[in-house]
Write a structure and sequence with these properties.
The chain is mainly α. Helix content is 47%, strand content 5%. It contains six helices and two strands. The chain is elongated and about 85 Å long.
Length: 174
């Protein structure tokens, strides 16, 4: 059974889908080739919208109509990572930067991976880790790379590696 074109009194087969509404619903009507061309030529997604509604739609379309968070929002992933990396865990003292050589201690696999991620030799002084972390954050921060997701993911890994080493060094001096 063939569908008939849903355009006024057309009797040709309706083989092409045309949306009934612009809300991305699954409602459609079937049209013949001639009428689908006519429909597409006259289709205006923004018909009936005022300028502000069109502006709001286009602005939302830039983020695929998904809500975004500012960097300063409390549950932003980077802010959570950053705060965890800089958190003092309620201790009165920070890691002692004067530790001469951490090579005498044994590091676990996660610590070794973290040194590698940060591009550092195993057991370097805490100051070197701190300086390297700050340098990498500046290099891979989303604001410095036009929001490129690859750099964003790299920064997440760098922050996690820094946090891993921070916790490892604290354990070794306690």
């Amino acid at each position: 059974m063939k569908n008939i074109c849903d355009w006024n009194s057309c009797n040709k087969p309706g083989e092409y889908k045309a949306p009934v509404e612009r809300d991305n619903s699954r409602k459609y009507r079937l049209l013949c080739l001639e009428h689908i061309r006519e429909f597409n030529k006259n289709w205006n997604y923004f018909r009936g919208m005022d300028d502000q509604q069109i502006f709001d739609f286009i602005k939302s379309d830039l983020t695929w109509h998904k809500p975004t968070q500012s960097f300063s929002s409390s549950d932003n992933f980077f802010k959570v990572l950053w705060n965890n990396a800089l958190k003092n865990d309620g201790r009165d003292r920070e890691i002692d930067p004067s530790l001469d050589n951490m090579r005498q201690f044994r590091f676990n696999q996660n610590d070794l991976k973290s040194f590698k991620i940060l591009g550092l030799n195993v057991g370097v002084k805490w100051d070197s880790i701190n300086k390297r972390f700050k340098k990498l954050v500046k290099k891979f921060h989303p604001d410095m790379n036009s929001g490129n997701r690859n750099f964003e993911d790299k920064l997440k890994v760098i922050t996690l590696a820094y946090t891993q080493l921070k916790n490892a060094y604290r354990k070794k001096i306690d």
